[in-house]
User: Fold these one by one.
Assistant:
Number 1:
Amino acid sequence: MGKPDADDPGLPDLPPEWGRIVVPDNASGLEAEAEQVRRELRLSPPTRAAALPLLALLVAMVTTLAGLTAAIWAQSPRSAVSAPTPTTDTPPADLIGQAVPAFDLVDEGQPVPLRGLLPAVIVLADACACPAELTSTAAVAPPGVTVIAVNADPAVRVSPPTAPTTVRTLDDPAGGLRAFLRLPPRTGVITALLVDHAGTVLKVVPEIRSTADYEPELARLTG
């Protein structure tokens, strides 16, 4: 036991506990031993020496993924935040001297050409139930000038101001006048637009506080 065979004197002495060593002529003769070794390797838990490199590899992978995520996030376009459209109490200066477009206003569903009512003081009352301001405007308007209340409160329609001046309460469902003035409606505020007989804008009053805001231009409406 443990001694080399007589026909193979070139092998060195081997430990006796290994038993008789037989070298097969064909490698397939070692298949059973190889399968046993593979099975034992699968069942054997990883040693501490093998776990440390695996842990280092895991940490490196996590660090790399975190770096890639940060780089992609930094390069991705941010959603643009829409800035609110600024509002202003000052009408565009370029409106003065311009011709008012040929709007059609509406009277109980029937179109009313704006140019057929000129000269006029057009009061946009869509954000204010302000019968007092409308009455004051009608009181100071000279004869021949039409006072037009656009999108007025129903109370104003039922009881229109009494004055020698012609007063019309009309609607502008398309919002053409507001778009032309570029002045959005504001709660409790009425806006006035003075237009002469030729359709030319003489004055825009974003917020009527008193008739003194536009009385100097009233006399020019019929001139």
Number 2:
Amino acid sequence: MMAQPGLEIHRTQSAVIGAIQSLIDSADESLTIAVPKSSLPVFAPQLSAAIERDTLVLLLIHGDASAPTPAYEDIATAVRTIESGITPLLVTADIQRGLTGHSRMLTDSVAAYQATEFDNENLAHDEFTMFLGTHWLMGTERYVASVCEFPRTFSAFQFAVLMAALALRAGTPITARARVVSTTDRTETTVSGPVINVRQSIVYPASSKNPAERSLTIETDAGPVTVGGTGATKEAYECREITLDRADDG
């Protein structure tokens, strides 16, 4: 039932599973999900479909280490595991909507817990930040996708940051062309040039101690500029869309 506009309380395991499956299906750009390892098979088809449609999937699994390990490359862009059994149930889709609750709702069908599903951008942003800033950092990196084929255009800035970090980690020089908005006067423009720095903590090695920081530094003809994602304040520009390419392809 609806507790208030934009919030829905789920008190049964079947309702929570259905809500998570629907959230995964709804994600076009990015998905963060923290679930017990033993429950992964329930969501594998939806996660696989998300990967097929080029959605960024950050998967954090915890709990029963003896549970079967799926083929991570089929269901996630990056995977971390955590031994702690106290990780909550956390899901965000496109940083617009999500779900949170006690993880035992997926492992104990008669547990007296509940989960809250929300369709609220502010709540989703807070949960996305908590996911990356707390639980993701506590996990151990188990899998990261290979660097994508270039050129590639991204509307999800955090996906571009991840791929830029992987490219630079592999020693592959890349360039960027980004449609941006100035964070000072909100004018729109385009910036382009070699990517000379990535600030992120999604994959190893982390280049920022601030888990909320995701930015690229691009060497333009006028000098280096910093580009951040939606809501950027510290960077010179807020990204709307960005295309990455190999530097030697230009």
Number 3:
Amino acid sequence: MKWKILFFSLLGINGFIIVLLLFYMFQPSPSPNIPNIEGEGPVFTVQTSKQHMNTLIRDYIQKHEKKGELSYDVQLADRLYIISAIPIFGKQVDLTMAFDPTVDENGHIVLAHPTMTFGQLRLPVPYVLSYIDQHASLPNWVKVDAKKERIYIVVSDIRIKKGYMLKAKTFDLSKDDMTFTVTITK
């Protein structure tokens, strides 16, 4: 009679183990917790050099320049230079502006600490920035603040293609390091 108790106990334990294994086997496996952020997609980092940025900027200006308005060129070197010529008494006089670019917390490029020359004459910065704001064919993502003596490049307003958003991460001319993030939005 003792063997019957042991046999049925062992049968019960084996049955319990089989039921337990079947229970855990048919349970869904845990999936990783990946947050689904609405409106945001994958983010890519793009790094470039001054040489490539100069080419990109030059191409953009040529494609979007309007006839009859003040023309200009942008060059990245030790500083960011905006070079133009203004007609005075039928002769072109060089206007050169130099800025130190930085990136703010919103991913916009801030052009600060300007120096401006008209030929060899140094000009008052607020006056020149006001003139540029009124007469240059600037894209809508370039904001001129003559009072603070700054130009803001609102990088997130640059539309490279619908569904893509751009932000500046670094803009260090001394290290030849310009890094941007591109976010694919829905």
Number 4:
Amino acid sequence: MHERPARTGAYWNDQATIATFTALTPPAYLADLLADPAPDGAWALDAGCGAGRNLPALAAAGYRVLAVDLHPGMLEQARHRYSGPRISFAKANVTSLPLADRQAHLVLCHGVLHNLHHRQDLAAALRELHRVLVPGGTLSLNTFTAAHLDPCLKPLGDDVYALPNGQHMTLLDPADLLALIHVADLSLRGQAVQYLSPGDPGQRSVWRATLTRP
């Protein structure tokens, strides 16, 4: 049996964690995703919006934006900072998104999937991201993987690892992640990028790619 993970909300709703995420700026590659103007009336979904760092850029690019996060502390911070006529907010899990089928032209899912507690949840989340994406739409995905496992991580079996603070992460081999992506009927647009990123504590192996729904 796995150890019981630390309560997810206790970490993500902690004021120090929220402050850390509030200080983050949008990733440089977001500008490339927004190089072309949004189609008229198009929706962008930020699935796991955190403190909302991506929301102004999405709205400025012409999208109607739905910002979704599971954790009320993060969601309230995002709403407090970025409320506007083009941005809506919802508390939801990435495995059950409050959008109709084929509604989002652009979906961001950054730093979310590895926080799910089971491989089956990752597969369910990828199917859900496929469901809400319009055919030909863009999914920007990044997640931690098992390509590099920092010594601070404690393996619990079934691709689950515990951090020193008790939080659990599901870290797949990149090839296994890509297999789940293909099963979800999502396709790579270009090549995936893998790199090491500093964590707290330890280093994380990041897998980043732009995907599309055929």
